[in-house]
Amino acid sequence: MKTVILRRVTVIAEALLEERLVRDLRRFGSRGHTISDVRGQGSRGVRASEWEGRNVQLETIVSPQVAQALLEYLAATYFEHYAVIAYVQDVEVVRGEKYV
Amino acid sequence: MKTVILRRVTVIAEALLEERLVRDLRRFGSRGHTISDVRGQGSRGVRASEWEGRNVQLETIVSPQVAQALLEYLAATYFEHYAVIAYVQDVEVVRGEKYV
Amino acid sequence: MKTVILRRVTVIAEALLEERLVRDLRRFGSRGHTISDVRGQGSRGVRASEWEGRNVQLETIVSPQVAQALLEYLAATYFEHYAVIAYVQDVEVVRGEKYV
Amino acid sequence: MDALELLQLNLLSPMVLAFVLGVVAVLVRSDLRLPEELYTVLSIYLLFAIGLKGGAELSVTPLGEVILPALATVALGILFPILAYGVLRRVGRMSVADSAAVAAHYGSVSAVTFTAVITTMAALRVPVEGFMPALLALMEAPAIVVALTIARSRMPGAAPGGLGEVWREILTGRSLFVLIGGLVVGLLSGKAGLAQVAPFFVEPFRGALVLFLLEMGTVAAARIRDLRKVGPFLVAFGILTPIVFGFVGVVAGTLSGLSLGGTTVMAVMAASASYIAAPAAVRIALPQANPAYYLGSSLGVTFPFNLSIGIPLYYAMAQAFQGG
Amino acid sequence: MDALELLQLNLLSPMVLAFVLGVVAVLVRSDLRLPEELYTVLSIYLLFAIGLKGGAELSVTPLGEVILPALATVALGILFPILAYGVLRRVGRMSVADSAAVAAHYGSVSAVTFTAVITTMAALRVPVEGFMPALLALMEAPAIVVALTIARSRMPGAAPGGLGEVWREILTGRSLFVLIGGLVVGLLSGKAGLAQVAPFFVEPFRGALVLFLLEMGTVAAARIRDLRKVGPFLVAFGILTPIVFGFVGVVAGTLSGLSLGGTTVMAVMAASASYIAAPAAVRIALPQANPAYYLGSSLGVTFPFNLSIGIPLYYAMAQAFQGG
Amino acid sequence: MDALELLQLNLLSPMVLAFVLGVVAVLVRSDLRLPEELYTVLSIYLLFAIGLKGGAELSVTPLGEVILPALATVALGILFPILAYGVLRRVGRMSVADSAAVAAHYGSVSAVTFTAVITTMAALRVPVEGFMPALLALMEAPAIVVALTIARSRMPGAAPGGLGEVWREILTGRSLFVLIGGLVVGLLSGKAGLAQVAPFFVEPFRGALVLFLLEMGTVAAARIRDLRKVGPFLVAFGILTPIVFGFVGVVAGTLSGLSLGGTTVMAVMAASASYIAAPAAVRIALPQANPAYYLGSSLGVTFPFNLSIGIPLYYAMAQAFQGG
Ligand SMILES: Nc1ncnc2c1ncn2[C@@H]1O[C@H](COP(=O)(O)O)[C@@H](O)[C@H]1O
Ligand SMILES: Nc1ncnc2c1ncn2[C@@H]1O[C@H](COP(=O)(O)O)[C@@H](O)[C@H]1O
Ligand SMILES: Nc1ncnc2c1ncn2[C@@H]1O[C@H](COP(=O)(O)O)[C@@H](O)[C@H]1O
Ligand code: NA
Ligand code: NA
Ligand code: NA
After folding, report:
1. Between C14, C47, C51, which is nearest F299 by CB?
2. In the 8-state DSSP scheme, what is residue D35?
């Protein structure tokens, strides 16, 4: 089975930002994403959405270029004021053409 | 601590397929799996389970051989008609013998 | 964008242990974590929390040293009697300093 | 009360208005997201409550009264998918898989539409045979099996699994299981048993239905964007079929001896399209079929039509037919 | 009944006790975790029920009766954030962003506190104008917009998005949408419609509120540790502001012709601080503001104060003022 | 009504039938999955409601009436785990950890079984002392602590943490916390407070219990496959222990002056095995013990036994004993 190596970008953010982040993902060329409801703690003790309980974890599989651009944008836009982290990993996918 | 490198196969699929996919996993030699309820968007705009809301994300840690066989089977069986994606990553586990 | 390579430790455990595991994570130097509710099957057929349904999946991004120490501790403390698995992967993060 | 008054009354009922509110929530992109768990819980609650009441009623009904309506119900459940398949395939020129899939939905029945008509009849103080929930249970499965059998015979090899699996899937599916379960519990524990749980399962019922329809509105609205994919033929099909099937239901109900209320409910069952049992079975057994078609038409067109205009219409039909 | 008796009665009501129980659960680190879904469902239920009743009442109210109180409500919603901003900025020496953020919360209104006072008035058999929920809806948005406008004019370029987005955010936000939706449904379906769903939306209402306040207690308790960050100024602000605003509410209510009950409710609306609509809007439009300040003061100080002491206090004020 | 009629009545009650329906759902692999959130919410609702009623009742009960039954309850809670441990270890030849774990469960009490007998007594119109929920709260903890102390003394070093942590775990555990919380709220707000929330916490109670038992059925059924692992000894133990303990409960209830209803409830408490507080505490404090044993026997054998046959049996015992 021929697999292709792509990048999986994971974003963990306060739930309030979900809709906005999805728009960002699309705009930067992501062709799909998967979201799960999570909870977490980080450096920011308190935030508006905390008492509504949840963070969201967005994952999108994209090309390295898209991953790079996305990460830069997220860092510049959200990292200062919002509870957001993001990281990247390599993944091997089947039928890589549907992601790029 | 001695760790072993194994493969983590992630399958994201419409919730309707959960039971079937679990059976498949077992049949191909997976010794365990973890499922979370997620939601997502991809190339297929609409599907039967969409209005019931959820996808499921199945993860199983298996040997490279099992991962390979599983991926081929999933691609051949589900990719055409169902909303399913699958990918693989390396993971380092402790006490690798319990997974193979 | 400068990224740093760190370690993502994933722990999947019966829900009963959540609070204890979070304390462990902190004690070993994790600066944050993300938890999701999952369900699963493994080698242990039955456990006390099973009928309450859920496992939890904890993820924490830490330095390689912390990851190593954490893994050893978890294996020694929980693997025998509790339904717990743990594994590690590399991740590339932006602004790596907040995790160590 | 004449037909127009009835229509107005129905359109301004809390049920219909809550549904509209749910639709509006999606259209204005409100963040009103009712948790899925509520949807699950309410649908189990409503079906179990319906079953419970039906079962308690059945426990005091002579079997003879039920037999004719039951036969009529099964007959419609076999007839409707065949008719619908023919129209979809011939007139609509849809593929075998898509025709069978849509036919399965329109031959089967929508439990929520059923619940809505029961509530409407109660509000109008029109008595309804207590055993109607048993007929609801009878009507759910046959059409799906018939439609899938048609597909199977026309496209050999294409559909995975046997019909046995389809039957199993439908019978153990949540909606039919809870409904039949409620019927059995009601039958065995009788009216005395029902009385014990009435403050939970009977009295708050209508209000719970309103909350459920609020959520249904958000669900159905998500189907409205399918309408473009669905195309004008299926939209027309989604409005004309319930009218025709509803009329057949009026005739069948009357002939099998049902009262005005029972006949109206039978008509609504005939007119309604499944969107719980059928989609799940079809998606498994006929993955080639496009869900946009069967969900778009049943949930995006026929359900709102029946809820708002259909119910008063079938009632007026039944009045006219039984009066004449 | 004199003020002290009333206070005692209120402190020993199931509502307040359930809230305290929730706080205790967090303090002793009990694993009492009510699912978030319950929180969502109950808040939608309570708001929709409040709206429904208000709408049904509104359907039989002459418009003339509502106009003066409505104008008063909007006036307070514009005045309060300006006052609060001034105090926070001058006296409290807080940053522009934090001052505006807190001002938005205290100018707006807490639907749960509203619900609590409605329930208390009902328990005391004090009649309340049926249209008060409409005023609740009117008071939610203006203060948030005014406060954000102040921030925007003082720190140009710092706040992303336009005011249009803020309005959209507030109007389509869950709480206001459901409240207005309930009002419209109640208005259109009238008292007859309400009667149909009363066993679900009216009678169990107080009990559902008790369960909700149990959960609110756990939520508010999590804010108590913010109090250290919040500092003595904001704690004092969180107690004095509701007293002052509550008194203004008593005056405004009386002058606009409301009854004793209506005036008390108006005072509670004035005194209460938003913690659903405002935080969401502020977090989006003013991310520089520290949530510990606005949530710590509104949820950690003002909400418990109003629930326990405030409601009887404003009632006593209204009695004194209207009696004199 | 004689014992057989009573048994039949009980077996055909909506409660028992709903439980059976849940079991059937698992056996036929229906996709009837009630959300876990519902389980959590309903168990909190039921416990809080039980506590509320008990507390309101307690507020008008002379303390003297409660003391003897309370002492009897604590005595049983200490005696039972010691007895059970002896039998399991000697007769059953189980390991120290497993014996202590199972003993903890059978010495403690099942709140749902308690709820079921309260409901049954109400349906039979047999009056029950209002303070029984207080006894329920008293019986939950001691047995667990006694059993874990036995384990600790027999296997030094093997069990982590101190007994203090176990006490804390039990007292702050959801079930006991909500029950005691409800008692306190009921005690403080009294009968007037209860009346306010009765349409939510009292009247729909039985129906909510039925829904809960539907879910319990699916949970218990999942334990049925444990029965093979559990073996014939534990199955026998799971049936004989409740009969013996139930009889001891009848004696203790009668001697401490309880009425027929109160004695039956006491017997059911004695006979029932915990499966909420005990498993959580045991899993943390005694991880060596095999959950298949303690959950399989308490949830897979004893709970269904008590629900179906036990309750009428203990009632018959109490009648015979008090009549003679
Ligand atoms: N080191 C970490 N590992 C995993 N998740 C983290 C980590 N730090 C932060 N998070 C997640 O990111 C969210 C925001 O983090 P922060 O902005 O640091 O408060 C937290 O609520 C966690 O869910
Ligand atoms: N590029 C992607 N990254 C992450 N998840 C995806 C991606 N594409 C699809 N998915 C997930 O896979 C599901 C099915 O995808 P599809 O078959 O493309 O509709 C979607 O609902 C998403 O949950
Ligand atoms: N091979 C595996 N792949 C993924 N998750 C696993 C695997 N084995 C076990 N798990 C998860 O770890 C939990 C405990 O496993 P166990 O201790 O083997 O019963 C299971 O309930 C699963 O959620
Ligand atoms: Na039909
Ligand atoms: Na205010
Ligand atoms: Na016991």
Report:
1. C51
2. -
Q: What percent of chain F has pLDDT over 90?
A: 72
> B89 and chain A: CB distance < 8 Å anywhere?
yes
The Cα D69–Cα F263 span in angstroms is 51
Tokens (6 digits) for D27: 């259209």
Q: Which ligand 2 atom sits nearest the alpha carbon of residue A30?
A: 1
Higher pLDDT among residues C95 and F184, named by residue: F184
Distance of alpha carbon D249 from alpha carbon D265, whole angstroms: 9
3-state secondary structure at position F31: coil
Cβ–Cβ contact B11 with A under 8 A: no
Count of the separate structural domains present in chain D: 1
Pocket test for ligand 2, best of A11, A33, A98 (most atoms within 8 A of CB): A33
The dihedral over CA atoms of F223, F224, F228, F230, expressed in degrees to the nearest 10, equals 50
From the CA of D109, the nearest ligand is: 4
F138-162 confidence digits (pLDDT tens): 998 899 999 999 998 888 765 556 7
Are B87 and A92 a contacting pair at CB < 8 A? yes
Look up the ipTM and state it: 0.93
CB-CB contact of D239 with D301 (8 Å): yes
Surface-to-core class of residue E86, CB atoms within 10 Å of its CB (0-12 exposed, 13-18 middle, 19+ buried) = middle
- Exposed/middle/buried for residue B80 (C-beta within 10 Å: 0-12, 13-18, 19+): exposed
Range of the domain at E167: 3-26+35-314
Which residue from A43, A55, A72 is facing C34, i.e. has the nearest CB? A55
B44 Cβ closer than 6 Å to some ligand 2 atom:
yes
CATH architecture assigned to C3-42+52-94: 2-Layer Sandwich (3.30)
Which helix (H) or strand (E) segment holds residue C41: the answer is strand C33-41
Q: Read off the tokens for A95.
A: 């039928």
**Alpha carbons D152 and D149: distance in angstroms, whole number:** 5
> How far is F43 from F112, CA to CA, in rounded Å?
8
How far apart are the two ends of chain A, measured CA to CA in Å? 19
User: In order along chain C (100 residues), what is the average pLDDT of each group of 10 residues?
Assistant: 91 91 95 93 62 82 96 93 93 88
Residue spans of the domains in chain C: they are: 3-42+52-94
Q: Do E222 and A52 touch (CB under 8 A)?
A: no
CATH code of F307's domain: 1.20.1530.20
Q: Tell me the ligand closest to A15's alpha carbon.
A: 1
**Closest atom of ligand 2 relative to the B44 alpha carbon:** 19
Q: What atom of ligand 2 comes closest to residue A62's alpha carbon?
A: 1
Confidence of residue D59 (pLDDT cuts 50, 70, 90): very high
Pair C33, C9: CB distance under 8 Å:
no
